[in-house]
Design a protein that fits this description.
The chain is of the alpha/beta class. The chain has helices at about 50-60, 95-105, 140-155, 155-160, 185-200, 220-225, 240-250, and strands at about 5-15, 15-25, 30-35, 40-45, 70-75, 85-90, 110, 140, 165-170, 175-185, 210, 230-235, 250-260, 260-265, 270. Strands 10-9-11-12-13-14 form a six-stranded mixed β-sheet, with helices on both faces. It has a five-stranded mixed β-sheet with strand order 5-6-3-4-7, with helices on one face. About 40% of the residues are buried.
């Protein structure tokens, strides 16, 4: 069985009938991210692609600016640790002891839930993206946008068994699927994809489209901006803050992609038809 799935007991009720059976559920467990062996953040996530998730999270949090600032990312090797599989330690190439101490002192330790990617940041001002605005001039046909949910859904292997995971997919501007990630958190799935591309030194993703299940929140648009992604499309609604951020930073933001219809909330010129 996949590390992202667990078997659980369930009582199925169908009308007047009750049957005891087993079911499969998506796993949610904490991932502790340490910087130079010091606790930094706890992310509620679905196990799998933990190194990529940590890398994408640190990029989105602006702890690192690029792959050249990443040293190593490794799971805990302490045999006496409780659940070492849920701990990753990150070393930074620019991470002197004094610099790490200042970084940790400037933040409270945060726990991010699977529904909110940046709940632990102190102020709304600290969420402001520091990346430049996106000015990609290329465009895509409407048919590419409407095809994304079905193509994303077709690759959600864990969702097929549990019905409990979100997905993010990275596509090229001609519609080719580059990567997909699943997680209990929408933002975690995005971090896993961006982190993987970061570790491959493939950023910025200026020729790509990001497709996500569920709604689009501020943090998902912020992560797209940091990665340089010009188009973000989701099957549900964006938040007001996501729309404002997309408008300000040049992201084409699409919501309610269902069937042959969708809404464009910012920078519509990149979508033909």
């Amino acid at each position: 069985m996949s590390e992202a799935i667990r078997s659980v007991a369930v009582i199925r009720v169908r009308g007047d009938a009750r049957v005891a059976e087993s079911d499969r559920t998506a796993i949610e467990e904490p991932l502790e991210v340490r910087l130079h062996d010091q606790p930094f953040a706890v992310i509620m996530r679905t196990p799998g692609a933990d190194r990529e998730l940590a890398a994408g999270f640190l990029l989105a949090e602006r702890i690192i600016a690029g792959a050249d600032e990443l040293g190593t990312i490794a799971h805990c090797r302490d045999p006496g640790a409780d659940h070492p599989e849920n701990v990753v330690n990150v070393t930074l190439t620019n991470g002197s002891a004094a610099a790490i101490d200042r970084l940790l002192a400037g933040r409270r330790q945060v726990t991010t839930s699977s529904s909110c990617g940046m709940c632990g940041r102190r102020t709304i001002e600290s969420l402001a993206a520091t990346a430049p605005a996106i000015d990609a001039a290329w465009h895509v046909p409407s048919s590419l946008i409407t095809s994304l949910p079905e193509r994303l859904r077709a690759r959600q292997t864990v969702f097929d068994e549990t019905g409990g995971l979100h997905a993010a997919g990275l596509f090229t501007r001609d519609g080719s699927l580059v990567d997909i990630a699943e997680d209990v958190g929408r933002h975690n799935a995005v971090d896993k994809i961006i982190g993987r591309m970061l570790m491959r030194e493939a950023l910025p993703l200026s020729d790509h489209v990001l497709g996500v299940s569920g709604r689009t929140s501020f943090e998902i648009v912020q992560k797209a901006i940091v990665a340089g992604i010009p188009i973000v499309a989701a099957v549900s609604a964006p938040s007001s803050l996501a729309i404002e951020l997309a408008q300000e930073f040049g992201v084409t933001l699409v919501g309610f992609v269902r069937g042959d219809s969708f809404n464009i909330y910012a920078h519509a010129a990149r979508i033909d038809g």
